[in-house]
Amino acid sequence: AWRALSARVMLSNPDLFAELEETVQSYYPTAPDYRTVMQFSQLLLAELPEQEGTRDWGLGTREAIEGSLEQEQKAEINSCYSASPNPDVEMLQAFAHEVRTPLTTIRTITRLLLKQRDLPSNVIKRLKVIDRECTEQIDRMELLFRAAELETSATDKATSTQLTAMSLEQVLQASIPRWQEAASRRNLKLDVVLPQDLPTVVSNPTMLDRVLTGLIENFTRNLPAGSHIQVQVIPAGDQLKLQLLPLVGDNDAAIVSNCTPPIRKALGQLLMFQPETGTISLNLNATKHLFQAIGGKLIVRERPRYGEVLTVFLPLEGSEKQGNSKFKIQHSKV
């Protein structure tokens, strides 16, 4: 509740916000110690009434329950330390959460300011830039958090239930202008080639835009200024193929081939780090895992003289029923 109200309080009365923030933190709830919970359960069992004729059975049952309860408590405590065998994943989840929280507050305040009337045009322009940058970084952190969450889950059953038939045309109509604007800021040109009729695909409506945006962002970041990129969407049997490739002529091919690719270093199990720009992004395996979670498949091929070509396959509506086993086999090969 305080997170929902803090932005409005900060905007209307900053002095009161500091005082309230300190008061709220003093009453911040803490998780009870497991020994307190276990002792309470034992005392509660000790006060259970005993029925006539079942005294001996009740005593034995009570001892069995107490012993079972104690074992369950110990197992739960041990699972807290063994559930995430990789500390990198835990650190990534904490990092993504800590970055998203203040950015969400900044974006909320920015949007409240944009609702005010009689703002100068230059102020509105800068506030919109802040809102856009916050949204992009929040979406990036959401992808990092989601990738870490997938690594901690034992199976993909939880994610497969979120797949549903959706209109890819609506996603692309909202995403293409943002992709082109982001490419132009890097002095790149991005064209999108779409068929006249886009079929309905099966995926996760919430995550598909974020995953595709993250893929295109990482792809464009590795290209030299002045490059020309094309996104092609083509039906391919019972799937829809989305291909991302650089378009270069004979003169541009020499420039691309002589261009030194950015240095990328592994950062833990899921991330890549570019020292030149300080950019952190998901590695290829984590990106493929994300596409699998939303029902798709990512293939990366290296084309001589032209660099990487990325191909994404998404199942069409109805294909998951007609060729479910075939699609699952394709997932297992990634």
TrEMBL record:
<keyword id="KW-0902">Two-component regulatory system</keyword>
<feature type="domain" description="Histidine kinase">
    <location>
        <begin position="94"/>
        <end position="318"/>
    </location>
</feature>
<keyword id="KW-0808">Transferase</keyword>
<dbReference type="InterPro" id="IPR036097">
    <property type="entry name" value="HisK_dim/P_sf"/>
</dbReference>
<dbReference type="GO" id="GO:0000155">
    <property type="term" value="F:phosphorelay sensor kinase activity"/>
</dbReference>
<dbReference type="InterPro" id="IPR005467">
    <property type="entry name" value="His_kinase_dom"/>
</dbReference>
<dbReference type="Pfam" id="PF00512">
    <property type="entry name" value="HisKA"/>
</dbReference>
<keyword id="KW-0597">Phosphoprotein</keyword>
<keyword id="KW-0418">Kinase</keyword>
<protein>
    <recommendedName>
        <fullName>histidine kinase</fullName>
        <ecNumber>2.7.13.3</ecNumber>
    </recommendedName>
</protein>
<dbReference type="InterPro" id="IPR003661">
    <property type="entry name" value="HisK_dim/P_dom"/>
</dbReference>
<dbReference type="InterPro" id="IPR036890">
    <property type="entry name" value="HATPase_C_sf"/>
</dbReference>
